[in-house]
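Quiz preparation item.
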């Protein structure tokens, strides 16, 4: 019986010829990481184990990105704890504020994950790296501590769902964020509970690596253990420029076993908007145009990459942010930020009346840099819109791609990008 990409990666890392869905295995790890929120908890668990040092100083990473630059004394203390641990353990990969960015943008940008890797992170959106053909998944602080100590943890091999996207969208603004929102809307937030989602089809082939990472990033929003895309020439081109180590390409066998195969034609797909309070509550943008907003956020580990900023700037250029709207743009990494400065994107945003922040998760998790008051509404390129996610429990978050968020910032309501040309602002 054939195996999927995920099964092949897990089998190799478990030292087995083959594995099957439901099997319990121990798999060695290529990268283990945490951030300023989850890191201190993992460090406490690591100390309970009683080992003196991490399994490999080059394979354990700590990065301050959630409440960093520190917003208050408690967050400063958390950042200090991971900094101290990194120094004590002599970790190769600790990155201070000003030299990093949002972890799920920064780690692939720096070539720290490559095809064929097994990666765990103490953050649910660790599934992002499946876009490069790696098995990557989020874990809790105890599992992360064991991973830091032993260099391996146990997994139950997940069942597989294959989602094939056919066609080419007629709407030029439709991309990875719209695909994944449409998928979550179709299968629900628990439609892939502890399963692999393998994305395939010509619509996936046409996507950039940035857009693919947007899709795998949100696999967790369907409950998935991991999302994954078979590497192709685009993947190899991306990795070649960055990789700090050798990679290995895996492909699913023709007779691989899938729990189900879902096929979707994206030809007529509109830009999607997820209404409160679930990522699965999706509607075409044409059904959302009456929703007045107070804030627009463009950024996060989902849509803070270079092409996301380019898309937003193309719509915003020559216009003004609506006078009743706060527009917040957050580049995913310092390198993206610097490129945005050099190529004029930051100037475009500021001239329009937006604020541009240093890289941070900030508003996505209701941390800072964009908290919503009671009754306020935001359209955001982030990944979750649960009750109270971005601030007051009686605020609302609508999820979209960068094009819709940028257009909405100008229109003062959720809007279609094509409407901006007629806008008086």
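Solution:
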């Amino acid at each position: 019986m054939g195996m999927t990409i995920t099964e092949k990666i897990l089998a190799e890392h478990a030292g087995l010829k083959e594995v099957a869905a439901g099997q319990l295995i121990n798999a060695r790890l290529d990268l283990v990481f945490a951030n300023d929120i989850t890191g201190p908890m993992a460090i406490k668990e690591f100390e309970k184990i009683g080992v003196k040092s991490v399994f490999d100083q080059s394979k354990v990473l700590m990065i301050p990105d959630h409440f960093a630059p520190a917003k208050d004394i408690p967050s400063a203390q958390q950042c200090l704890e991971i900094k101290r641990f990194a120094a004590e353990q002599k970790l190769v990969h600790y990155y201070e504020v000003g030299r990093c960015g949002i972890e799920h943008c920064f780690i692939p940008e720096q070539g720290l994950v490559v095809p064929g890797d097994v990666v765990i992170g103490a953050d649910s959106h660790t599934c992002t790296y499946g876009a490069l053909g790696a098995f990557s998944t989020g874990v809790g602080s105890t599992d992360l501590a064991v991973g830091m100590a032993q260099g391996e943890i146990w997994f139950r091999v997940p069942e597989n769902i294959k989602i094939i996207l056919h066609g080419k969208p007629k709407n030029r603004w439709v991309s990875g964020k719209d695909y994944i929102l449409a998928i979550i809307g179709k299968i629900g937030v628990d439609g892939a509970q502890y399963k692999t989602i393998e994305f395939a089809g010509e619509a996936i082939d046409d996507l950039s690596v940035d857009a693919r990472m947007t899709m795998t990033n949100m696999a967790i929003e369907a409950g998935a253990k991991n999302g994954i895309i078979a590497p192709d020439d685009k993947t190899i081109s991306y990795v070649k420029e960055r990789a700090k180590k050798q990679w290995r390409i895996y492909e699913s066998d023709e007779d691989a076993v899938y729990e189900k195969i879902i096929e979707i034609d994206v030809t007529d797909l509109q830009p999607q908007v997820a209404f409160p309070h679930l990522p699965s509550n999706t509607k075409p943008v044409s059904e959302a145009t009456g929703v007045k907003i107070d804030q627009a956020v463009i950024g996060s580990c989902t849509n803070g990459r270079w092409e996301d900023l380019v898309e937003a700037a193309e719509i915003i250029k020559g216009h003004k942010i609506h006078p009743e709207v706060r527009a917040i743009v957050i580049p995913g990494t310092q390198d993206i930020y610097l490129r945005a400065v050099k190529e004029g994107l930051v100037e475009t945003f500021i001239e329009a009346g937006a604020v541009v922040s240093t890289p941070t998760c900030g508003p996505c998790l209701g941390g800072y840099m964009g908290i919503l008051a009671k009754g306020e509404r935001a359209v955001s390129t982030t990944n979750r819109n649960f009750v109270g996610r971005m601030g007051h429990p009686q605020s609302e978050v609508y999820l979209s791609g960068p094009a819709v968020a940028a257009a909405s910032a100008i229109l003062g309501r959720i809007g279609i990008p094509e409407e901006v040309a007629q806008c008086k602002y």
